[in-house]
Amino acid sequence: MNKKRKGIEMKKLLLGIAVLGLTVSCARWEDTQKDWESDTKGLKRTVQIYTLDGKLLKEYKGMIRLRDSDESGRISLNLISENNRRVTIDNAIVITEED
Asked: Which of the residues 5, 29, 45, 53 has the least number of beta carbons within 10 Å of its own beta carbon?
């Protein structure tokens, strides 16, 4: 009887680990899909550019692709809804929101 109970508990534990693994994998997969969509065709976004002292410089809305440079801190916006116009931003605070 005791061995049977341990076997059932082990199966429950393995099932729990499998469910947890699938949940994490699904979230990671959704993130990967969103990154791919953003990199290839852009996302509908609102992007606000602020000076370092907090004043709003510019706001962009529409289908926008973002590229950031880890080394320099520059951000490049590809404004798809404005004939793929490219804007490069340096030394500013950039806030992006998906619409």
From this structure: 53
